[in-house]
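stuck on this:

***
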Amino acid sequence: MTREPQPQTSSSEWPKVSASAPTRVDLAGGTLDLWPVPHVLQSLCAQALPQPRTINAAVELFTSAEVASFPSPEPACKLGIDDGREHNTFCLPQELEPFHQSFPLVAQAWAGFKEASAGTTGRHWQITTRSEVPRGSGLGGSSSLFVSLLGALHHHITQPVTPALSEPELFELCHHACNLEAGLLGGLAGSQDHLAAAFGGVSSFRFGSHHTTRRTFSETCSEWLEKNTVLVLAPETHHSGGANWRTVKRFLEGDPQIRGLFVELSQNAASLEKSFQEEDFLEAANCITRDWMLRKKTVPELSTPSLDHIERIAKLNGAMGVKVCGAAEGGMALAVFESPLHQHPNFLSAVKDAGYEHLKVKIAQRGLRVRTSS
């Protein structure tokens, strides 16, 4: 492993592909996107349960990746990585192990293109990644980065005529990203984070036995979310893999409490979809906050003292409740208000006084974007 050398070719002359993708706030039905939960759930309940779905909103907190390469006189593949914290160069395959140890996510994505990148020897590659979301926020930052990085690698290596991916290609990319993330985690990885990153907007994703389908909602829904919700960051870093595995394990082992929870989560997600379609935002707020109430009631260890504190502050200052993002045990809490947030100025003051950071919700209407340059 060596410090990045100065290339002989000017970096402005390298063929480059840049990609960016939003992260997401999950609104209802999270965990139902974890295979094989929706299919087992549908089988157990036959036709009595709406098709399992998850509803989320892509937000303008982005991840990005840039991939560049140029011919090198050396026969080996030289790979430079910069993630904003470290910047190192590896000679592959000789330095494959330190590459994986230093940049596991990038290494996993690179390995996912092993066949497509078979002709990458004799080239110098530079991969740069960035993320705007706090680590462990529960907003799906690592999943979004997988989508950004795979999008950039796909376009750079396969060199398509147009950088725009079709809807089937986006679903395929999400499936690829989800499998790679499962390998990185060494366990379960849901698909909703990748789907929100790829497609953007406020969406409902239904998980059928043959394929996943997407339904979108009006811009009025986006405007309501932007005016009536706000994100508050708890100091505890969430760990989705462990929380998801413990919950799903109990579900697959037939735990009646967890199976009952998943039935209620599925019904609630269907109700949120209906309320968004009808633009009934009072009911939408009830559905969003109900999702967290159901989870915390059945699996109380998903919450933390800070998340409970944020919820108390929110309710004392006019909020209907909160929806904690991701698998919980830390991360972001979405505070939901019946009336616009500007009518509750004391809430933001109370959050700041308590030492918590808050972030405005801004919906990202577009998902994965890819740009090419030379």
Remarks:
- Confidence is low (pLDDT under 50) at residues 1-11.
- The chain is about 40% helix and 25% strand.
- The radius of gyration is 21 Å.
